[in-house]
């Protein structure tokens, strides 16, 4: 009946595996050992959390476990014989024995149930189907009873769980009693309408049901219909009482399923004497104590199971939950660390200030790019203003004090040598997950990880039987009081397991997981532990081996500001494998042994290969630290030298001296025949290595240190003082000939004299930038002209040509088309003043088009972009320069008319956004109106009628806003050639009126909106959430409204509430309604200001809005941002349920402000929080950190570091992930669902690529895809296959 009723929610069912983010080199990572609880979880096969919860409950039922272990191979058979045809092997109890032994004795975080489910006869897909745990309880017990027929355990289930109910009907006239007995393995108790388990049992076994009135009972003694009373009593009580709560029901009025989430309490100890038929005996005969609660989290259509279980035999290591002891102990521990580590601050001493800043960080290290900002926050003054004059750049200062400071994490962080960061406390860099800790430091970190407990904290429970939360692979300690949290809500108790208080455990069973486990299973577990230990050791050895590249000094020379290999064929360095757990001294000794002829000191310096060559950074000076602590990872480059010079040349090290590879461009007028420029193809000079850099120019690649000034560069180039240095001009004022203009001209900006004293870094010059060097006499040549500070380089005469490729139509394969085009390419002599019509005529003459081909008047010339896409045809009435065509480029001659100067060339499609290359083209006058343009497009495709309008394409190539004013001309609407318009079905609303589509937000956290919805003659469309939209809210379409754009937001809310689909939605005031704007079925922004007009809110006709019902009144300010915040579960790759937070960003929108707001919300320290923004489209997280404030070079003002701007652009509805670094060392925000989503995106992209190729080959354009409605899995009955053993 239920089928997929309990289909598992992806977001909830996450197996916790702290090492899952670890990237291995060879083979699979062995399973991690048990956690601090010393209990083993069970892996989830995809949807088997219901099975895991029940199996853990049976495991922690010692009497069941020991009865099962007492059955030997003589009764059950051997699993090795199960394939033999005549062998009777009872596979299910044997696999259950093995699973229980593995859970008790094997040192692994979680065990697999694959063999057990195989014995059930389930296939691979059955593991992904979720079922009801109450149904599984009955079916599993039935399967065990059938499997144990003919053995000493055939009555196991009956002895432990079987009870009897007697139903009685008493005639009120003759007192005749009719009784019927009923067996049970679990009691199904009602939840609806009752508030507790005791009340439900009272209604079942104490209250009588009267047969009277029209509902009489036929008495066998009276032989007629009489008044009677019906009642039920417990006749036989089993040792273990299982209560199944009826949480799920069906509403026959609404014809839908629902879950009872109201408060339903149950006691830790219950006395069943009032509900029994026989009440004689001791209280202990009727008293039960709770030992397991199976919990269901979610709704009636999906969810997740886990179990709260009491450790009766004290097999686990119970510790107080971290949140209980955090407020007191952590505060004292922080004070002790602060007193011990914080040195006395002397603001005039830079060494003291920097040491204090680094020592106060929890990780004992600081990002290099954040050190300046932290210094400014500490002393109120920047490094440049206070210390640079006497101490130089901060990087140079750190390097000169290498006895105090050290660089770690690939040189991105700075730490103190006296107190180096260890993997336990140092937050890992993104390239180094926290699980890859330095094994050599683990022994020293115990004190940091386990501070001395506060004696003021007394445990609430006595030492002994404690409670654990067994959630698939995760096992965590909980307090007994936490059970009360499962009385109500979406996460609430679903099955209760009680045991008689008479059942006592022997002392030898306590803290003894091997108690009554068969010897062969103990040996099997010991062998498995040996294999696991060996696999972990091998994995650790493999995973800690890194590959290094050694660069020896005698193989390099200093050239162009960087180290260049003497032998170009051996520039890859010498490979070396080394264990990163070893120290720098060990590595130095190993290199000494490799280089037997090495003499003198040996310095090891971290190097990096840059475009200019090899550059050196920080040296490894402390031989006692491990390579991991020194920040050395795999594929790192190390330069081996004497630490002073290379081939007699002094080498400058550090990030500030990073070389920049510039392209030095000089005039070339073609005097030397060896350096002639022919057809724009570059040639080299034998001596200087010059290469053609364009028409009339030659270029040379030169490297310079980033910290040198432009004047020093000029001297290094050997130029005169009067020479001019220019940088390529990216754009200019209107009328100037810049790089983007046609005719073959290019523009360069002259560096002003002040820039000669600025460094290359300060001028933002980067690798590949061009630097034009001109002598004063160069301006006597016609090639160069100076206008203000812009130098224009004009194309010389021998490079004045255009290439025209003939493309008459699309041909067969790509290879055939390329060959034919290659034969039909010609060069046409051209100048900047030549008309485009003349270029076309010359091309047609050169191509010798025969009469069978289209007339020349039907040809046009089109440019192509960098992707090969055809651009709009160029106007033939203008010159090459005015058309924006650069000389020495390629034009395509293809069929079609060229637009005149007064015409526009437009693309258009009907109904949806066009696919690449599938749009249609049309030429219209730029003075024609929107209505005339629409009619021309409809005539072109053979459509008629007035029920159409035009829309633009927005920036993301989707159908955007309509062209409202149909009488406006295209030029007035700033529509230009090459734009794409979409002919859309439907009439435009009247001018000044907006037609808005209204949706209702179905908030899963409260069912107000959903419960208040009624049909009222309107069938709302429920948007299905596809896998790529798992983070989109469920929406219901409730209709449309037409409203004036001068109406206020308050008027809009009032009018929306008049829709028939929302008649039963009651709100005290409109302040209890929130209005969202939708884009692509996603919530993008909240409309603010009750008195703001819709025009000012920039609502366009046809827009989608969403109404969300609130529990409290709300009136957001313009800079108040609504965020969804999710706190990460410590040690797990999942999050607690999201909460809404309103962040006031009007005064301060920096990361510090958001961090402070979140810290106040959670009651934590701001410095302990790590934040990240979620990107749902990519299933990735973007970490938010305090970056340095940038200073504008012109205005000398600090730019505010706003999260509302680049790169985060925080807006309403964004999700912010939070990690509490005090209790969570995992800095990775990515969950298992994110990884699955990323994989799905890759698969969709691959399918889209293949589909696009297939569509292109068939000539069929792809249409805009919409997510299909989510189809639920077919309902499959739960069953377990058992052999015949009678």
Record the SSE blueprint.
Layout: E1 41-42, H1 49-59, H2 62-69, H3 73-76, H4 91-105, E2 110-111, H5 114-119, H6 133-147, H7 156-161, E3 163-171, E4 177-184, E5 187-190, H8 197-205, E6 209-211, E7 217-219, E8 224-226, E9 228-236, E10 240-246, E11 248-251, E12 256-259, E13 269-271, E14 287-299, E15 302-310, H9 322-341, H10 350-360, E16 365-367, H11 368-379, H12 383-386, H13 388-391, H14 394-400, E17 405-408, E18 413-416, H15 446-449, E19 467-471, E20 474-478, E21 491-500, H16 519-543, E22 545-552, E23 556-559, E24 562-565, E25 574-579, H17 584-594, E26 603-610, E27 613-619, E28 636-641, E29 645-646, E30 649-650, E31 659-667, E32 691-694, E33 697-705, H18 710-716, E34 724-728, E35 746-750, E36 770-774, E37 784-787, E38 790-793, E39 801-806, H19 814-823, E40 825-829, H20 836-847, E41 859-864, E42 870-873, E43 890-895, E44 903-910, E45 920-925, H21 930-941, E46 948-953, E47 959-962, E48 980-985, E49 993-1001, H22 1008-1012, E50 1021-1022, E51 1035-1044, H23 1049-1056, E52 1073-1079, E53 1082-1086, E54 1104-1109, E55 1120-1127, E56 1139-1144, H24 1151-1162, ...
Parallel strand pairs: 1-2, 5-10, 22-28, 31-36, 39-43, 44-48, 49-54, 55-59
Antiparallel strand pairs: 3-4, 3-9, 6-9, 7-8, 10-21, 11-12, 13-14, 14-15, 14-21, 15-19, 16-18, 17-18, 19-20, 22-25, 23-24, 26-27, 26-28, 29-30, 31-33, 32-33, 34-35, 34-36, 35-38, 37-38, 39-40, 41-42, 41-43, 44-45, 46-47, 46-48, 49-51, 50-51, 52-53, 52-54, 55-56, 57-58, 57-59
